[in-house]
Amino acid sequence: MITSDPWHPLPFFVYGTLRAGEANHDLFLRGRTASQEPARLPDAALYDGPGYPYAVERPGAGPVHGELVTALPESYDRLLAELDRLEEYVPGDPGNLYERVARDVRRPDGGTVRAWVYLAAPRVAAGLLDRGTALTDGDWLTRR
């Protein structure tokens, strides 16, 4: 059960289609969040994917720009499960496209907060680092 997770409940750091104004924001987050604020993920690079981005951990890279989303307590468990499905994340599955991991993200005031982040799974990250297209400014919203 998700609620037995020792990191429960953490906010989410979103950097792609879940950001405000993007395709999945209203589908998954509208009416289910207590707050959303700008944030940055240090030591990560952003890569263009097939209609969505991948963040890849790389010391000294970044930051990746996104939003820190805090779910309403009554929405948390269901939202976490739905985001796992959206990102096709299954704990321990070697076929994952993304891995959900807890990382420190920076708020605009310089403070940090631990949040769930969906990073490119190891096999996906290796391919991106080898032949992917990096978004040099780290911001999915500026790709247009």
From TrEMBL:
InterPro entries: AIG2-like_dom (IPR009288), GGCT-like (IPR013024), GGCT-like_sf (IPR036568). Residues 12-141 form the Gamma-glutamylcyclotransferase AIG2-like domain. This is Gamma-glutamylcyclotransferase AIG2-like domain-containing protein.
